Hints:
2 copies of one chain form a homodimer. By secondary structure, chain A is an alpha+beta fold. Chain A contains 11 helices and 16 strands. In chain A, the strands form 3 sheets. Chain A has a 6-stranded mixed beta sheet, with helices on both faces. Chains A and B meet through helix 2, helix 8, helix 9, strand 14 and helix 11 of A and helix 2, helix 8, helix 9, strand 14 and helix 11 of B.
Amino acid sequence: MNKDSTIRINTIPGGAAAAEGFVAGGVECGVRGSGRRDLGLLFSERECSSAAVFTRNVVKGAPLEVTREAVEAGGVRAVVVNSGIANAATGRKGLEDAYAMQALAAEALGIEVPKLAVASTGVIGEHLPMSRISSGIEAAAAELGRDGAGFAEAILTTDTRTKEVAVQVEVGGTTVTVGGTAKGSGMIHPNLGTMLAFLTTDAAVEKACLQETLSKATDRTFNRVTVDGDTSPSDVAILLANGAAGNERLTLNSPDYPAFAEAVEKVARELAKEIARDGEGATRLVEVVVEGTRDEAAAAALAKSVVGSNLVKAAVFGEDANWGRVLTAMGYSRVSFDPDGVELWFGLVKVFGGGAPVEHEEAEANAALASGEVRITARLGEGEASAVAWGCDLTYEYVRINGSYRT
Amino acid sequence: MNKDSTIRINTIPGGAAAAEGFVAGGVECGVRGSGRRDLGLLFSERECSSAAVFTRNVVKGAPLEVTREAVEAGGVRAVVVNSGIANAATGRKGLEDAYAMQALAAEALGIEVPKLAVASTGVIGEHLPMSRISSGIEAAAAELGRDGAGFAEAILTTDTRTKEVAVQVEVGGTTVTVGGTAKGSGMIHPNLGTMLAFLTTDAAVEKACLQETLSKATDRTFNRVTVDGDTSPSDVAILLANGAAGNERLTLNSPDYPAFAEAVEKVARELAKEIARDGEGATRLVEVVVEGTRDEAAAAALAKSVVGSNLVKAAVFGEDANWGRVLTAMGYSRVSFDPDGVELWFGLVKVFGGGAPVEHEEAEANAALASGEVRITARLGEGEASAVAWGCDLTYEYVRINGSYRT
């Protein structure tokens, strides 16, 4: 992705609270009812510029309306989020509850109401237990700190582990940190932002520049992940920048803007891969690389079609190098291409080229599917563009989880 | 669908060989290697007019090229089909094999080569064992008869049962028969014609009228089925009309054309439902009805989005009336609508309306998912159009079948 080899990006521990001036906390308040944390707060001790991207699903969770208003007003510096109930398809009462969450968190943090973003994830069509949410917000505010682990845990639903990434990069002589915490697992086929992703940076960044950075990074990372083809009504990605690093405020024209953008994209990409790896029931991360298309959009559409195919996903689970399914999924992607010009690889094993099967050891191709990270590559001869998409295998466990999610 | 209540359509036994003048046969020739029939012939003893619809997948099986030529030349009156190997992504040799199949069958039946359509279904990317195909064609030609059961069996892959439908309808004072035989099961998300569907009629029908009839019926039936969202490269539906019934040749303007069209659509619809019901691993037929949209295309897109959602499918398997997933799938269908104007039912139990959950007995809603045929209804308040789509649940067995299809 990054063609400027002078950009050095170092990974550091932590997530959304890794950047200077950010604190976070997460507690159990009884929404999930399973003894796990379910309410989180993320807070910048300084004022922020903020950006967000939202689901394109026509059905939108009530919190997204509140958050969209807040981001449009500018200067969001805190996020309150619960798991267990998505507060989507909940009518007027749901919207009132989302505004109440915003007001309660603003009061607990001592900031103005419009500076709070709100997010909820979980079951659709149920109302939030507001008294529990209220005491959860108070408890979370009381335990804010630089360790974001509790926050990362509080936003999970069927995820099996937390997802935190943080990096540092030099911008105008100043080291800035970009961190992020996300959740994923099911109903993952984002169309602008995945389920929930909270990115923060202590860089000073002009608002329009911040939005452009997040939108572009999202398009190449969260929007390239699919677990099950279902786009959630709750998807949102938020990027907060509080300037604590002391750099000169970044704009799209700043000489070091590419370094900052690459750092944000790297955090988003690593979180996106973690979401795919932890897809519901998944045993493997599947990375599909499409090269040699006329433009990136075509490569992305082809890669997403392959990584989203139930048949490809089941074949990966079964360690069956059934490349016909890969070619078939490319064929129904709505991208026009010449099948005779396609070459296909499972790992390093070439299986198809020149319009016909390529002789190979079946066992070697199957073995390429047996590791925790599977790479499928398609090379077309139509141009220089490329794209990557991420997904996971389709397993018995996916069916079990989703046949009994609410019970 | 049919608003003319004077049209009487009677179901009779049989399938593609039910109409007067058609014979069929199916034998085992060793392509599948599982002791099951794998080569079928369908033959009209009289000349025919013919129509076909093909997959829109960019990747197309070699037989489809041969069949397209034959249908364009006009007068296809026989079909040779094998299961076990799809002869897709097989390069020049695959195309030569498909032409050879056509020539061998024409010789065995004593008709001109261009009057033969060819179809293959099964594993993608393997070459046909042509000596077995050749002896299979001879054997099948020797056992042609009015009983289409062997033919229906020979075209199956992972299907668990044969799919045959036949009806009779009166056209201009003459009783005509329309029959069809299909296969489905996996890689079913047709975009023009399902895997394989062979329809026949002893009506005399003008060619353009026949094509229009098949295209329209396909759009409302086979194209409304999804098992797994994967559009196969081998999909084809063929309709042969041999005129043996002795009716006056039908055109689009014939007074009784609607009766004929409705008979064809009924055969196609019943076959489509059979394909959904026998989807890989399926335990239930899922019928999604969308009403009250501005046009039929919107209703169809909404219905297909719901019936194609892995999360809805898994919820049906788990008998979990998780209606939030239904609303969510409508939301990402790319159809624009007002979620607050939507009403949702599982069976007869209303679960959502006026933008908010509707109080209902959870157990009753779950019970509506426990039968062999599940109906989910969405009613919008935006117009008078409606559409139905069919699918099946997502089960452990689907994963098992597709994790080990080739092994």
